[in-house]
Specification:
The protein has about 90 residues and is mostly helical. The chain is built from four helices and two strands; from the N terminus they run H-H-H-E-E-H. It has helices at about 1-30, 35-45, 50-60, 80-85, and strands at about 65, 75. It has a two-stranded antiparallel sheet. Helix 1 (about 1-30) packs across helix 3 (about 50-60) and helix 2 packs across helix 3. The longest helix has 29 residues, at about 1-30. It starts with a helix and ends in a 5-residue tail after the last helix. About 25% of the residues are buried.
Length: about 90
Amino acid sequence: MVMAMTRLKARTMERRLLATLKAVATFAERGWSPSLAEIADVAGISSKSVVMNHLNKLLDRGLVEREANTARTVRLTSLGRRVLQEEGDTT
């Protein structure tokens, strides 16, 4: 039972990270880097701190990159674009 709940939590987290990655991609299509609030809105996340947590995880996985201490610098890496393509997102 505990193992099944852990897997469910992991899948839920992966879905949320993917939603965050897709949100970044949505803004990339428009030619700009999104704010934390914009990512939260598009990804359906209620907290900017959760968005920051997700971005840090995506950064650690090499799916996004950004300049430290600078607003609106998050962008997809080639690996991030490839992950979205594999997920069926044509971004």
